[in-house]
Specification:
The structure is a homodimer of 558-residue chains.
Chain A: E1 16-22, E2 31-36, E3 39-43, E4 59-61, H1 65-68, E5 74-78, H2 84-87, H3 90-94, E6 102-104, H4 106-118, E7 125-127, E8 133-136, E9 139-146, E10 153-160, E11 163-167, H5 185-194, E12 198-200, H6 218-228, E13 233-236, H7 242-254, E14 258-261, H8 264-275, H9 289-294, E15 300-304, H10 314-319, E16 332-335, H11 344-356, E17 360-363, H12 377-387, E18 391-392, H13 399-411, E19 426-431, E20 434-440, E21 446-449, E22 452-453, H14 458-470, E23 472-479, E24 486-495, H15 508-520, H16 526-545, E25 550-557
Parallel strand pairs in A: 3-5, 5-6, 6-7, 11-12, 12-18, 13-15, 13-16, 14-15, 16-17, 23-25
Antiparallel strand pairs in A: 1-2, 1-19, 2-3, 4-21, 8-9, 9-10, 10-11, 19-20, 21-22, 23-24
Helix pairs in contact in A: 4-8, 6-7, 12-13, 15-16
């Protein structure tokens, strides 16, 4: 459903304006803009991955239009953690203004810098840590430790003349995380005492009842599977999941196996995590792929990417027998990851392929090899109760999850009218402890396809979907302007319609006749002749085939 | 992975040959051919629904090629139950030979006849029931009651000179089904005592641990939700799920609500089920849609289709505010169905849409509103133990599920070498208590698109995928054969590539130049000139856009 777009009033001094450009009403491309007294602060600049109705799109960016001519007023970008849906669009923002300072934890900034290097951008960075305070013009920032599926994640407190905002970024409340770095509920409590005027919680799992299981419960499962594995073990997971990889390393050591990291992003990210001390690599456990391939089958674990069935990733290529690691009878594959909606068929194709090759495939469906990185309903209740926010604006979720998160807030005593369930582009003004919706911007999707940004539009995607469903028929014909007599053609080209070209034999004469008739009826222009061709072919394809391919007439007057 | 295709030897008298043409290595288009002494028996003729990599395909049929010139030897088709993946392709088979007798239960045949009516085919039908025996030439058939997510399902026992085959069709072992018609384990035990030489079990849920919950556990949940619902209730489920609808009718009555059936297939199937007494309709509970729309909100339940997010189905249209039933604040929607892999994003879009409209959406993810129709691992173990088959050929499943089913057989004592995990087109010969693979036919996908059957090929689908990912650029140019000088054009048409036509301005002169150069290099034929255009545009698009659209040059020599 389209939403009503309307402009907000001019921003009055001392009022804080909050505008999410992404991540509200969707899972991905998180980006929130804060403005007060003419200055802007941005929290996260992520990418969204396309769904099946966005074919050929590589990435989807937040729509920067709302801030394009305000870039000089941006005092900084805070990055809560190093996942693509929070940092992936930073290179595209910095291409608009390269010297925007980036604030984030050590690991987060290291991952961003590696990414920016590939885009040949050298950013200005400011490393911050939990407990730290930073002044950015009218914005007084405080950083709070949160636990997530990547280390060193931070929530950010934004204090301004308008009040206190707590923006969690992605988080969960694992009480026994591998790095003992828990979500700082003491800080949440202290902030609650001080008074949180606006709370923006990660709501990804707000519709999941109960509590997220402990990450450390996965280690023993992986260890048992590896201990029982007669031959090679391949573990696939997310290339940024340092603690998951840590557990695989430890399980490998316990079973006297070496580990080879496979896949560009896995090698790059774990290299960074190890250099900075977030990944503890036991001496001698890591070997390169070449060495690994020469080790005995029962002495190696391959740690790879591709747990979502991505066709070009390592695991899918193994499943197609198209990788140097040849999976065979007795091998064990562990998919230590979630199954992101929309990827099911791709993942099941990979599982079937690996099973056919003789592998025993262990996954979420048959073993505890994954836990989510997001707080479930039970954990969110803890947060709402300990913070007791005056206003709640659930973010990081589709509409159903934002609604669920707001319901949890209401159950803990937040007045319903102080919960805001909205979508990208909503304009919130915070003033004297009350947050109100004062506008709704029209924020679109910005598609990255190949090297082009924003060149592909929704109209192009609509065409692509039609082409995918029906294919096309193009008709080239050169005619005499006066008589409509065909001089060259009709030359018919079709793709995705029918392999046998002879199907068009009976429509060609109809086209010739239609052009002559159009001329008799006084048509003299290209448009009129094209319409005649379109109508003729359209009628023919509908009656003969009950199909609706795209019809593209090209009539040239010679 | 491609599988090795090889012809089976000529079939010797007294040997039973089994060839699955669908449903083995996939979920859908179930069809198995049995042959002995020159006569054929077919069990099920279903359709498969396309996945996202088969865009625009309406249905996928089993490949009839293997039996196309044997149709006169077919003594009959046994239909185990009335689901589309078991009966959906019957009309297409009967178009090849209309007088093949169809055997099945009352409900199954009634559903088939309704379907055939739409295809204007009047079949020859023979109603059979559990416990019944039928002689079909060399095939002695016995029918056994099984419980499934549609009433009146049958397993079939095929006795021939070669031994006894038990073909379950889809089934589960609900011990307290609504119609008290349980899977007949006594018959399975008796057959086990007699000796089952070949067992073909439904393996859809073989990789699901434990037991399928009781269908009747859903009723109370639905009843509670309806009891609490302040306004309208909309329940969406499968249009053939008689017992699910029965529970909705009963829950509606208990809450003094009327029920309106919405959606063509729902109305048709439930009409049949009610006429035959499978659906017990409490007096006066059913009303038509027009009446329903005039009833008070808290007095009506709409029972609709579309639980899989099918864009054209009732529920998706409601979610888009594009249906006479206008969903609003306080309405309750129950998705009483499974979530078939691949449909997740579509279903979540529907849930988000309904939530935005103010509806409370109850689904599998947050309530017990669905149980599967297939036996889980625990139930299959009962079957294997009570039947103790000599040979096991798991069917109805993807490779991972067939493998899981075979493993269960092995755990109950079936020798591994007597379990056959194969794919469509495998040729099994049963002789003296031993089933062996003796061949592998090349069985393809037969695509139905619009009114065409088999016209769309895999090559067309590949083209469609490329068009979907990248769009196309077609270049029309008329040239002088000798000089390559352009007389008309280059006329460039593109779709799904870029909305702004001006992107092509810089490539047109390159095309003109390339054609002239081609002529200088001695090119004189259309193909050579076309290649020159293709190379030029391909190089341009790759360097300028890093993309790979389909490039279609049309060079005409004037």
């Amino acid at each position: 459903m389209a939403i009503d777009v309307y402009d907000p009033p001019a921003l009055t001094p001392g009022v804080l304006r909050v505008i999410p450009l992404g991540g509200v009403g969707e899972i991905g491309r998180n980006m929130t803009v804060y403005e007060i007294d003419g200055k802007l602060l941005i929290v996260d600049v992520g990418v969204l991955f396309p769904e099946e109705h966005q074919p050929g799109v590589d990435l989807i960016l937040p729509d920067f239009a709302a801030i394009r001519d305000r870039l000089d007023d941006v005092l900084g970008v805070v990055l809560t953690h190093g996942h693509e849906d929070h940092i992936g669009a930073v290179p595209y923002l910095l291409k608009l203004r390269q010297d925007i300072p980036l604030y984030g934890s050590r690991l987060t900034l290291a991952l961003v810098e590696a990414k920016l290097k590939e885009h040949r951008v050298a950013p200005i960075t400011r490393v911050v840590a939990e407990g730290e305070h930073t002044e950015l013009g009218p914005f007084a920032l405080e950083f709070v430790a949160v636990n997530h599926s990547i280390p060193d994640a931070l929530a950010v407190v934004v204090r301004t003349a308008a009040g206190l905002v707590l923006h969690t970024g992605d988080f969960k409340m694992d009480q026994l995380p591998l790095d003992a770095r828990i979500t700082d509920l003491r800080a949440f409590a202290r902030l609650g005492e001080e008074g949180v005027d606006l709370f923006l919680p990660d709501s990804t799992n707000a519709d999941v009842p109960g509590f997220t299981a402990l990450e450390r419960e996965i280690g023993p499962t992986i260890e048992r599977v590896i201990a029982k594995a007669p031959r090679r073990v391949i573990v696939a997971s997310f290339s940024s999941h340092v603690h998951r990889v840590q557990q695989v390393l430890d399980a490998a050591v316990a079973n006297e196996r070496h580990v080879a990291l496979v896949g560009r992003s896995m090698v790059r990210n774990m290299g960074i995590a190890a250099d900075l001390g977030y990944l503890k690599v036991p001496d001698g456990v890591l070997v390169d792929l070449k060495t690994a391939l020469e080790l005995p089958d029962d002495r190696i674990v391959f740690m790879s990417t591709g747990s979502q069935g991505e066709p070009m990733a390592v695991l899918a290529r193994m499943a197609n027998n198209d990788h140097r690691i040849e999976v065979g009878q007795g091998d064990t594959v562990i998919l230590a990851s979630s199954l992101i909606p929309g990827n099911e068929n791709a993942v099941y194709r990979v599982i079937n392929g690996l099973t056919k090759l003789g592998a025993n495939v262990v996954h979420k469906g048959n073993a505890r090899v994954h836990v989510s990185g997001h707080a479930a309903a039970g954990e969110l209740l803890y947060c709402y109760n300990i913070i007791r926010p005056r206003n709640v604006f659930p973010v990081h979720g589709e509409y159903r999850q934002l609604t669920a998160s707001a319901e949890l807030a209401v159950e803990t005593g937040v007045p319903r009218e102080r919960t805001i369930v909205a979508e990208n582009g909503v304009v919130l003004d915070l003033h004297e402890g009350v947050a109100n919706v004062v506008g709704q911007l029209d924020v679109g999707y910005v598609y990255v396809d190949g090297s082009t940004v924003g060149e592909i539009t929704d109209a192009d995607l609509k065409d692509r979907r039609i082409l995918a469903e029906e294919g096309f028929i193009s008709i080239f014909v050169a005619i005499d302007r006066q008589t409509g007599k065909v001089i060259v053609g009709p030359e018919i080209q079709a793709r995705g319609f029918a392999e046998d070209e002879s199907v068009f034999d009976d429509v060609r004469p109809q086209i010739v006749a239609a052009l002559a008739e159009a001329a008799r009826n006084g048509v003299t222009d290209q448009h009129g002749y094209s319409q005649a061709v379109r109508r003729t072919v359209g009628r023919w394809v509908n009656t003969q085939h009950r199909r609706r391919p795209m019809i593209i007439p090209v009539v040239i007057e010679a």
